[in-house]
Amino acid sequence: MNPEKLAKLQAASAAARIGGKGTPRRKVNKVVKTSGSDDKKLQATLKKLNTQSILGIEEVNMFKQDGSVLHFPTAKVQAATLNNTIIITGTGQKKDLTELVPGILTQMGAESLAQLRRLAEAYQQAAAAGAGPSASASADDEDVPELVENFE
């Protein structure tokens, strides 16, 4: 670019500047999008279904066919009896059934208990298949060799 034109543009922009020492800074308002609008739409839809909150439910566990559990530690449960609908809101975590076993035995039905029994049998078979060769190897490791000569 031509140096004369560049000097001319710089001089023009310096003259057009406003502000300086002591003038307030211009603040930029950043727009923050929240998921509140989605929540409002959901609540409006639930209100149309005439749902009622069910109190006293601390956690929700949904048992899947593959042996995993969809666990909601802090769930909000609502129900619409006329529509035969139950709504569970909250953050769900996918966990293995064995992680939750002691605390959820009272919540399990007959189908889930049968599934837990099958899962336990599968673990026992896997342990028995894995323990066969390793059991003889560990027995060999536990044998203490006899002393052949005196070390003193």
UniProtKB/TrEMBL annotation:
From what organism does this protein derive? Chytriomyces confervae
Q: Name one GO cellular component term.
A: nascent polypeptide-associated complex
Identify the keywords attached in UniProt to this record, alphabetized: Transcription, Transcription regulation
Under the heading Pfam families, the entry gives: NAC (PF01849)
In this chain, the stretch annotated as Disordered covers: 12-36, 130-152
Source superkingdom: Eukaryota
UniProt-recorded name of the protein: Nascent polypeptide-associated complex subunit beta
**NAC-A/B domain ranges (all copies):** 36-101
Describe, as the record does, how this protein assembles with itself and its partners: Part of the nascent polypeptide-associated complex (NAC).
Q: Bias regions of kind Acidic residues — which residues?
A: 139-152
Which PANTHER family does this one have? TRANSCRIPTION FACTOR BTF3 FAMILY MEMBER
Q: Which family does it belong to?
A: Belongs to the NAC-beta family.
